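From the pipeline queue, job 12 of 40. The input is one protein chain; the requested action is below.

Action: predict structure.
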Amino acid sequence: MALHWMAGGLLVVALASVARAETVAWQIATAGSGQRHVSSNGVRQYSPHGDVLVQEHLRRRDGALVWSKSLSLSDGFVVSAPVRRERRLDGFGLVIHRRGNRNAHGWNWFARDADGEFRGRGGVGRLAVFVRREPGVEELETIEFLEDVTLRYSEDVRRPPGAYSHEVVIRKGSVLDFTAGPMCSAARP
């Protein structure tokens, strides 16, 4: 949007920056013993540069940075992705955390299926993934959910493999925009 006004006989044109907003919709349900109980539903319009929490997650031996980029949902649940530079982004994890529960796990892997599309394990959950490209590297930026995608979370890692306590369903049309914060392209001095 451009703002026009006169100042000292000169026409001044100022470009106002409009913050871009994205939307994510979800449902959180407890799961177990063959039963499923919905505990919350939500829709959040968010600013990628104001609402996405960015933290340095790991410093690899080669000096490249890995960032954890997270967005809060409801009931203490947070969805995040580790973001790093790679020669080619062939897969990535979406992680479900719950504030206050350190003995939990929610790792959900997605692999490249076709150029620009990724699928969850077993071919379930189709995503469009957009990357930032520099010579010889790619970096995860934005994820668009092409269908409802169920992310699993276990509140106790001592449960048997494959067991989970919650399902976080991210709805079709939702966008996780992880362009916020410093990009992984620069290693710290």
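Job complete. The longest strand covers residues 35-46.
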